[in-house]
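STRUCTURE REQUEST FORM
Protein name: Sodium/nucleoside cotransporter 1-like isoform X2
Source organism: Drosophila lebanonensis
Requested output: structure tokens
Priority: standard
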Amino acid sequence: MTGKNIAILIRQRTIAIVRKKWNIRRRYSVSLTGVFKPYVGQKVYDNSIEPAIDKWMEFSRTRIMSIVMILFVIVVMGAIILFESRHELLKVRGVAAPIFFIFVGFVFSKHRRAIPWRIVVHGLFLQFMLGIVVIRWDRGREVFACAGDKAAIFFSYAREGALFVYGETIVNDFVFAFAILAGIFFFSVITSCLFYLGVIQFFLGVFGWLLQAMIGTTVCESVNAAANIFLSMSESPLLIRPYISRLTRSELHTICVSGYATVAGTVLGAYISFGASAAHLITASVMGAPGSLAFGKLFYPETEESQTKADNIELEASEDETLLDAAASGAANAMMIVLGIVSNIIAFISMIAFFNAVVEWSFELAGVDEVTFIGLLSKAFMPLVFLMGVPWYDCQKIGLVVAEKTLINEFVGYMDLGKMIMGGEIDARSAAIATFALCGFANPGSLGILIAALSVMAPTRRAEITEVAFLAFFAGSIVSFTSASWAGIFVQETEVNSISEKLIDLYLKNSK
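Status: completed
Returned output:
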């Protein structure tokens, strides 16, 4: 059997498994079906167990039960936060940011009376619990730290290709467009091959079903949120492309929020090379998925009937003919991503430099020196990062990188964050919180990219996509800031000191 036939066989088998698993899963009852049915028999199951499951599912969604579950979740979260901050009361301040963000979401919500508080609370609770498992729990932290280390090693192989094409001088001098962005080509090829084989669809089916079952969002919203952990904001909607034109406004908004609240695996290598913790980046992406569903429904609650159901959804397969074709497509797609990143950075840094000069000149006329546009915005972000748990003496510096991320993009923010870490300008906890806060695609360039991508998939919905995308931009930023707040509560002092040392070593290594 040839290599081509083996690849096709693996692909067909994996996609068949994905579709089979997706079609048989119907919320919680399907899991229970698999447990009870083989042991009790068809008749007993149909007459007794299945009706009991249906009644429980119906009861669990009643108003009274929803209120009880929401109160229970709030009490549990409060108890955990108090326990975590028993030796360091300043950590309690980190919960102020999520409370403030929920208030902002309520005030600016499109339909306040229709807010599904159960979905909002469950999404935030899942984001909160992921933070505990990955950051606070020793085993979970070890697993993600190991995954982060392996990811850093994996992305380092892109350096070999960059050295061959660009030469040692350019790569060793740490030239951004060549040394940093080379990793995007490598990972894009790997992602495209895995997508062709159906591996990515398999994991998306599992994660999407879990999000749908645990939070209560629709299939398309859940699958897209799970996809954004691995893929970019323009790639994830491709999985549900046939259904984009049939989505409600609320579903479109939630899909946009998921795109802004996470980052693609293709750019993780670039962030790691700047000095960002690989474990924290992976954690932030995972936490962003449930958070995006929660804030997506808070800012734009559902008031329409969803036209897409679990029993008529199938994940899109790759359109490539062979594995080699998939690899070539991945490399070609990476070129567009790299060009988009470079053009956006050049354009927005130039624009910010112009605004800085105008503001500085204006203040000099008034007799005030050294005032810049980005400096003013960094001060505006200071109260926000303070609520997220950053010590006041680091708030201006962290406010600066958050402002850069919001106005330019996260690449510039991570570059300056790496310099601050290397120079010992901020403490380790501030660096950890900033790593989470910057981990998202919410910036002006991405706003245009997402609107264009979704409009191509659903040309008749362009006006609605544009309308919801602007609100989703702010909601997506809030998701990243909320993840940063939870991280500030759970990160331990011994851990941040160790991480800080690793980041400095990595930054020094890459700067040679």
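Reviewer notes: Residues 61-353+399-511 form one domain. The two ends are 47 Å apart (CA to CA).
Form closed.
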